[in-house]
Design a protein that fits this description.
By secondary structure, the chain is mainly α. The chain contains eleven helices and four strands, in the order ααββαααααββαααα. It has a two-stranded antiparallel sheet. Strands 3-4 form a two-stranded antiparallel ribbon. Helix 3 runs antiparallel to helix 6, helix 7 packs antiparallel against helix 8 and helix 8 runs antiparallel to helix 10. It starts with a helix and ends with a helix.
C-alpha cells in the first residue's frame, strides 16, 4: 500500500468507517448464529415410567410424540421453517430437517387418533386427540396470523391433555390399545415414508428409472399415458435438502421405535419380534452419525468423492427392510 492510498483511507469520513465496522461485526454474528442454529438436537432417552415405577401402556408413545414435537419448536434457534429474517432466512438444512421430523410427527399423531386410542373402527374418537391431531397438519411455513408455532403448540397441549387423562390425572379416562394390528397400521406409514426417502436419496446419482407404476397387474390402467422410463435425477441444488429431510425423519423415528419397544413389549415378545425392532433402531442410529463434511458431497457411485446421500440411503433401506420383516411377523397368527 502506497503512502498516497493510505492517506486516502485515513481521510475517509468517520461514518464510513463506522458502517464498515458494523457490517463486519454483523457478518461475524450472523455466521456464528447460523453455525449454532444449524446443529441438530441430540437423541434423548424415552421415558416409560410415571411417578416412579408406575407403568402405563401408551405413556411412552404419547410422551415421546410430545417431546419430539416440543424439540422441533424449542431447539436452538427455535422453529426456522417460517422465519423471514436473517440469518435463518438463508438457512435451508435445518428447515428441511424440521420437515422430516414433522412428517413423522403427523403420521404418528394420525395413527394415535385413528388406531391407538380406539378399540375398534366403530368406537368413538378421543376428543383431545381428534382436536389436536389436525393442528399438526397446519401449513409449516406460515409466519403470520396464525403462526405455525402457535398451531403446533396447541396440538402439543391437546396431546398433553390426552397423556394426563391416560395416566389418570384428568377425567374422563383415556385409552391406548397396544395391539399388533394397531402397530401394523403405523408401520405401514413408516414403510412408505422410508421407501420414498430412500428412492429420493438414491436419485442423487440415478438419471432415469424404469416405470413400475403398472407392474404386477396385467389389467391395471392409469389416468395418463405411462412412459417406459422416468427422469428422476435430483438437482445438485436439492441434494442437501433431501439429505437433511432424511436425517430429520430418522431422528424422529429413533425415538418412536424406542417407545414401541416399551409400549408394545408384550406384543413383540409374543411374536418374537424384539430383535427386529432393535435392528431398526440400530440402523436409524447409524444414519445419525456426525457429519464430518461442511457440505453434502454428491460423488458418483464409484467416484473419488463420497456420496453422503447413498450412505444415508443404505442405512434407511436396511431399516425399511427390517420394518417390512416386522410387519410380516405381526401378520402371523
Amino acid at each position: 500500500m502506497t503512502e498516497k492510498s493510505a492517506a486516502k483511507i485515513l481521510s475517509k469520513p468517520r461514518w464510513t468507517k463506522i458502517t464498515l465496522s458494523v457490517i463486519a461485526v454483523s457478518s461475524v454474528e450472523i455466521s456464528t448464529f447460523s453455525i449454532y442454529w444449524s446443529r441438530t438436537p441430540d437423541v434423548f432417552w424415552v421415558s416409560r415410567s410415571v411417578e416412579g415405577d408406575r407403568v402405563v401402556v401408551g405413556y411412552a408413545t404419547t410422551d415421546t410424540l410430545i417431546r419430539v414435537a416440543d424439540t422441533l419448536l424449542e431447539k436452538q434457534g427455535g422453529y426456522l421453517s417460517n422465519d423471514r429474517m436473517p440469518p435463518s432466512v438463508f438457512l435451508d438444512n435445518i428447515p428441511n430437517w424440521e420437515f422430516g421430523v414433522l412428517q413423522q410427527v403427523r403420521d404418528l399423531a394420525r395413527v394415535i387418533r385413528n388406531d391407538y386410542s380406539r378399540s375398534q373402527s366403530q368406537s368413538k374418537e378421543d376428543p383431545d386427540v381428534s382436536s389436536a391431531e389436525p393442528l399438526f397438519f397446519f401449513d409449516n411455513n406460515s409466519w403470520l396470523l396464525p403462526r405455525t408455532e402457535s398451531e403446533y403448540r396447541d396440538a402439543i397441549k391437546g396431546f398433553e391433555r390426552y397423556r394426563n387423562r391416560l395416566i389418570g390425572k384428568k377425567q374422563p379416562e383415556a385409552q391406548f390399545y397396544a395391539r399388533a394390528d394397531n402397530l401394523r397400521e403405523w408401520l405401514s406409514q413408516v414403510e412408505k415414508r422410508l421407501g420414498s426417502i430412500t428412492r429420493r436419496l438414491g436419485d442423487s446419482v440415478a438419471t432415469t428409472r424404469i416405470n413400475e407404476g403398472l407392474a404386477g397387474d396385467a389389467s391395471a390402467e392409469a389416468a395418463a399415458t405411462q412412459p417406459d422410463t422416468i427422469d428422476v435425477q435430483t438437482s445438485w441444488f436439492e441434494v442437501d435438502d433431501v439429505f437433511f429431510e432424511a436425517r430429520g425423519a430418522a431422528w424422529a423415528l429413533v425415538h418412536f421405535f424406542r417407545a414401541v419397544e416399551l409400549d408394545f413389549d408384550k406384543v413383540l415378545a409374543d411374536k418374537n419380534a424384539n430383535a427386529s425392532v432393535r435392528q431398526i433402531i440400530r440402523e436409524l442410529e447409524a444414519s445419525l452419525q456426525p457429519l464430518h463434511s461442511p457440505i453434502i458431497l454428491n460423488g458418483s457411485g464409484y467416484g473419488f468423492f463420497a456420496n453422503h446421500s447413498l450412505v444415508m440411503a443404505n442405512y434407511l433401506a436396511r431399516a425399511n427392510a427390517a420394518v417390512i420383516n416386522l410387519r410380516e411377523l405381526l401378520d402371523q397368527g
